[in-house]
Amino acid sequence: MRNNLLPVLKEGWNFIAWAFALFVIFALLDCEILEFLSFVAFAALIYLYRNPERELPLFQNSSVTSPVDGTVLSIEELEDSEYGYKIEIESDFSNVAVLRVPMSSVLNEIEHVQGTRLSKKSPLFSKTNENTRLVFENIDGNKVKIVHTCKQSFDGIHTDIIKAQNLPQSYRYGTMINGVTTLYLPRNFRLNINVANELSASETLIGYFS
Questions:
Q1: Which of the two ends of the chain, N or C, has the fewest CB atoms closer than 10 A to its terminal CB?
Q2: How many Cα atoms sit within 13 Å of 127 on the Cβ side?
Q3: In degrees rounded to 5, what are phi and psi of residue 23?
Q4: In this structure, how many other beta carbons lie within 10 angstroms of the beta carbon of residue 200?
Q5: Residues 62, 208: contact at Cβ < 8 Å?
Q6: Residue among 132, 160, 155, 157 nearest 3 (CA)
Q7: What is the C-alpha end-to-end distance of the chain, expressed in Å?
Q8: Is this model's pTM higher than 0.85 or not?
Q9: What is the dihedral of CA 187, 192, 196, 198, to 10 degrees?
Q10: CB neighbours of 108 closer than 8 A, spacing ≥ 6?
Q11: Three-class SS of residue 107?
Q12: Among candidate residues 40, 10, 9, the one with its CA nearest the CA of residue 23
């Protein structure tokens, strides 16, 4: 992701190329309906894989920003756990797919699990769907755990970072089209968001470590 600064994400290039090739073929064959549908698919894929620049606001060093675009589904206080808060953020096809580092940190853990892409309404969603788990730790030892889980989608989760890598806040580290992101935050964290808030990756402040 570090070199992926083009307007369209490289993860979508193959899909976009196929859609454009079909558009050209159907245009040459004078298949108007299929030509139109392939052009719509071509335009939709460019939109889905858009890669806009984001201006990072000047937050404090102890800040955590949203790693994804989406809507806050729930905020839960945890007990008898390593973490004090659990936040669920749902992203859909209208959101930018880019995943961004929530704070200046080192990547302690990363694990990708292949799986299904069932609806979030399915009772098997959290158990069987494709997911990626990451743990970031800042210079003060504060940890943020992130779990990205795919919903129904034609593409999976892509990441381009390695364990022990030093990462600046807002750094692009992957993509996910249509999924749920779960944040686990420590007890010494002050939240700055509420349920139903719309979040923008790297631009929306989740809160601060106290």
A1: C
A2: 4
A3: -60, -45
A4: 16
A5: yes
A6: 160
A7: 31
A8: yes
A9: -120
A10: 135, 136, 137, 143, 163, 164
A11: strand
A12: 40
The Cα 1–Cα 11 span in angstroms is 10
**Whole-number Å distance between alpha carbons of 76 and 87:** 6
Helix (H) or strand (E) holding 158: strand 158-159
At 106, list the tokens.
Answer: 């080192």
Which residue type, as a one-letter code, is found at position 11? E
The closest of 65, 63, 64, 21 to 41, measured between CA atoms, is: 21
pLDDT (tens place) for every residue of the chain, 210 residues total: 455 678 999 999 999 999 999 999 999 999 999 999 999 999 999 999 999 988 777 788 899 999 999 999 999 999 877 899 999 999 999 999 999 999 999 999 999 999 999 999 999 999 999 999 999 999 999 999 999 999 999 999 999 999 999 999 999 999 999 999 999 999 999 999 999 999 999 999 999 998
Structure tokens at 54: 């984001």
Q: In the numeric block, which tokens belong to residue 1? A: 């992701």
Count of residues making up the chain? 210
